[in-house]
From TrEMBL:
The lineage of its organism: Bacteria, Pseudomonadati, Bacteroidota, Sphingobacteriia, Sphingobacteriales. It comes from Sphingobacterium kyonggiense. Keywords: Amino-acid biosynthesis, Cysteine biosynthesis, Pyridoxal phosphate, Transferase. NCBIfam families: cysKM (TIGR01136), cysM (TIGR01138), PRK11761.1 (NF008735). The keyword Transmembrane helix does not apply. Residues 6-278 form the Tryptophan synthase beta chain-like PALP domain. This is Cysteine synthase. The keyword Amino-acid biosynthesis applies. Pathway: Amino-acid biosynthesis; L-cysteine biosynthesis; L-cysteine from L-serine: step 2/2.
């Protein structure tokens, strides 16, 4: 009998069929919204908490804290509840109400502050005072190691070793770092493509970090190419995914899809996999589908 944690991973890989007409190019979506917490962050959250417990960094009476834009917080709230751990999640006040309510449903304390940088500073200051243990997804190797252990191998297996391009939004960069490490080890010719917002765009889950806040786990040498995506393009592709492919996802997934289609239109043959990092129901109170 499996517990909820045992259902994390092994998410579906589905072919996208309506956006290009070259039979030698295939685009596949990795549906991370099928994880029990609703996003790819279930993988990293589980690995960060379980590894910290195994090392003895935390114990059953530890208080955890983490700054998050949403998905990591939901995943951490769910997994912390399974381990009986107390957690405070610090989010930008612009986050959708669905996210806050979901975290609170799992028993987490939610603190809303001005923006993501302020949230990160608050969490780090509280941890420095010894008031809580910070998981620090932005600098924690257990973040990207989750994808070396699970996401990368699943993609390699489910494409029958045929993947030529991996496309992912870049937030904490854990997903793209871990998948790059694993996939490049299998075939160094696989192209790793990241996407980030254009300067004027705001896309939940993707960031252009100020240099001082760039995730410490990010190694630019592991990304072959970065594609800038506008808010308008990400929105358009998110809506098209739902209407034409039945894939109901958030805006960062639309951004990754836009980049995947751009790559598909540039190559003569290949197998492209992009990450659909969460589900669209997390954004219904926003104007994403309005």
């Amino acid at each position: 009998m499996a517990g909820i944690i045992d259902t994390i991973g092994n998410t579906p890989l589905v072919e996208i069929t309506h956006f290009h007409d070259n039979p030698k190019v295939k685009i596949f979506a990795k549906l991370e919204g099928n994880n029990p917490g609703g996003s790819v962050k279930d993988r990293a959250a589980l690995n960060m908490i379980s590894s910290a417990l195994e090392r003895g960094d935390i114990h059953k009476d530890s208080k955890l804290i983490e700054a998050t834009s949403g998905n990591t917080g939901i995943a951490l709230a769910m997994i912390a509840s399974m381990y009986g751990l107390e957690i405070e999640l610090v989010m930008p006040s612009t986050s959708t109400r669905e996210r806050t309510l979901t975290m609170e449903a799992f028993g987490a304390k939610v603190t809303l502050l001005e923006n993501m940088e302020v949230c990160r500073d608050y969490a780090e200051e509280k941890a420095a005072k010894g008031e809580a243990f910070i998981l620090n997804q932005f600098a924690n190797p257990d973040n990207y190691k989750a994808h070396i252990k699970t996401t990368g191998p699943e993609i390699w297996r489910d494409t029958n070793h045929q993947i030529t391009h991996f496309v992912s939004a870049m937030g904490t960069t854990g997903t793209i770092m871990g998948c790059s490490m694993y996939l490049k080890e299998q075939n160094p010719d696989i192209q790793i493509v990241g996407c980030q917002p254009t300067e004027e765009s705001s896309i939940p889950g993707i960031r252009r970090w100020p240099k001082a806040y760039l995730p410490k786990i990010f190694d630019p040498s592991r990304v072959d190419r970065v594609i800038d995506v506008s808010q308008a393009n990400a929105t358009e592709k998110t809506r098209e995914l739902a209407k034409k492919e039945g894939v109901f996802a958030g805006m960062s997934s639309g951004g990754a899809f836009h980049a995947a289609v751009q790559v598909a239109n540039e190559i003569e043959e290949g197998t492209i996999v992009f990450i659909v990092c969460d589900r669209g129901d997390r954004y219904l109170s926003s104007d994403l589908f309005g």
